[in-house]
Amino acid sequence: MGAPWFQLRDLAKRHGIIARSSNYTLYGDMSQRMHAVIGQFAPEQEIYSIDETFLDLTGFNRDLIAYGQEIRQRVRQWVGIPVCVGIGSTKTLAKLANHCAKKSLVSHMAEGVCDLNELSRSELDKVYQDLTVGEVWGVGRKISARLESLGIENVRALRDSSPIWIKKEFNVVLARTVAELNGESCLALEDVPAPKQQIVSSRSFGQPVLTLEEMIEAIVSYVSRACEKLRRQGSATGAIQVFLLTNKHKPEEPQYSNAVTVKLLKPTADTFALSEAAIYGIRRIFKYGFAYKKAGVMLMDLMSEASVPVDLFDGLDPKTEKSKILMATLDEINAKMGRGTVRSAGEGLRKSWAMRSNNKSREFTTNWNELAVAK
After folding, report:
1. Other beta carbons less than 10 A from residue 65's beta carbon
2. Which of 199-208, 244-253, 352-361, 364-373 comes out lowest in average pLDDT?
3. Which parts of 190-274 are beta strand (E)?
């Protein structure tokens, strides 16, 4: 995982492996469809990630294992992808149950579904005993290693630990995890995802970038994508970081990486204003003589647009209102006609630096020209 493709190409060819390029448009659309179908099964839903969602089943007086099977079958029939369902009295236990469902660790339950509430204490002890502590939601590699050094090697040991001691030795977050493993809900369901605190837009180049002009095109393109996300969550940014790097997998070539943060006079969500700041930043760190593999931007110091401080001259600057109207129009057109229909000329036309996607699967659900045809 994470290995560069050129190192695996011959291996894939020998074993007849079919490799596909990333297809983010298809992934995003399938994710939205999946979440929409699952959301029909409960009044409260939290979309946690592109492929994970929580439902609140409190008060459901029915066989939840059968209900989980119904969810799986509906998603498979309507969306065409397999899912697993984990059921628990807390979010941490639901995540753990989902892992058990994927691995079929509770053999007497229906395939792809696990309800930890249906297990006795002794059955839970056996399941938790066989699960390493790193399988618990929020327990990363470093925390897992430290827990193991203290003799807490499996989920059962973590569950039976003292929350007070865990809080003292680690932090309050892990103490809440212990409480959740014991059935005490500490993490409420979020109806609306919290706004992101940072927004990153970055891609590897399809071919090495050697010139400042190409690098500027790429950076402006990344700014445009990041700003779409920024406006979608109703935020503005007070700073933008620009970064670039060469290919670390080619140590025989000259290596260089750098980043710079540009503070803004006033938080904004204007693509053109942020592009100008990003160009200023990339000019400061770009050096000729290197073959750049990747670059990107990070929007920082995010705040709600409604919270942007108003200064004495705001009402006197017609550019402020024009900017909002222009950005709203830009987003509306691109949402209706497709991303990139209207874009900044600074993004370039040829985009020779764009990420290669020669093996990309078709966009069956979002592109009229690539619809599946039944014969």
Report:
1. 17
2. 352-361
3. 199-209, 235-246, 257-268
Token pair, residue 50, equals: 């592109």
Say if strands 257-268 and 235-246 run parallel, antiparallel, or are unpaired: antiparallel
| Residue type at position 307 | S
Confidence band (pLDDT; 50, 70, 90) for 100? very high
How is domain 199-347 classified at the architecture level of CATH? 2-Layer Sandwich (3.30)
Q: Class for domain 5-181, per CATH?
A: alpha beta
**pLDDT tier, 193 (very low <50, low <70, confident <90, very high otherwise):** low
User: Rounded to 5, what percent of the chain is helix, strand, coil?
Assistant: 45, 20, 35
Residue 128's nearest CA partner among 159, 150, 102 is: 159
Q: What is the pTM of this model?
A: 0.71
What's the CA gap between 14 and 184, in Å, rounded? Answer: 51
CA–CA separation, 92 and 290 (whole Å)? 46
Structural domain spans, the chain: 5-181, 199-347
Please state the φ and ψ torsions of residue 192, each to the nearest 5 degrees: -120, 125
